[in-house]
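Hi V.,

Quick status before I head out on leave. The structure for the redesign project is tokenized and pasted below; the design run finished overnight.
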């Protein structure tokens, strides 16, 4: 019985040694810059009425309805590297549309 407890303890130590070493190691932090220039915020989106819109019937949109007003933002305009967030006002409240 004593032998099996000793073998269990040795096995447990061998299994936990890499984890313990990783917990005590302090690797250097090297952040990576993704964009060379910051994206300009879209703060004045072009707003057109539903009848003047050129959105096709099968195009995906992000729809927002707030205080009796509605907006539809094209998903394709929110997925590019220059169009991830559109800052807008809807129903007198500032909103941020993102996808």
């Amino acid at each position: 019985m004593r032998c099996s407890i000793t073998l269990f303890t040795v096995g447990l130590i061998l299994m936990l040694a890499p984890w313990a070493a990783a917990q005590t190691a302090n690797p250097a932090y090297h952040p990576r810059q993704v964009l060379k220039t910051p994206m300009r915020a879209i703060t004045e989106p072009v707003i057109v009425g539903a009848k003047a819109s050129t959105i096709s019937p099968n195009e995906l949109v992000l729809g927002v309805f707030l205080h009796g007003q509605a907006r539809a933002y094209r998903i394709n305009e929110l997925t590019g590297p220059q169009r991830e967030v559109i800052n807008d006002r809807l129903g007198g409240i500032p909103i941020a549309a993102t996808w």
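Above is the designed sequence. The mean pLDDT is 76.

G. will cover questions while I'm gone.

Best,
W.
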